[in-house]
Amino acid sequence: MARGRPASTTPTWECHIHLRLRVGEDDDLIAFLSNLPSGRRALALKVALRSGGMQPGQIAGGGIDDDLAAVVDDFLK
Prior knowledge:
mainly alpha
């Protein structure tokens, strides 16, 4: 008798993601990920990506955050 859930017959696509999070800058993300059991991080990331309104146009040109950072940098100079 096999243990665990039955093997899926659905094709899968693997994507390995490596993040470098900076203490002091990414503390919210560090707290979010570090409070999850390692086996649940992929599911939590999928939920976060789906609820965040993924828009390829925002990422293709550097993203909204990069544009905002450039404006702030210009203002502070």
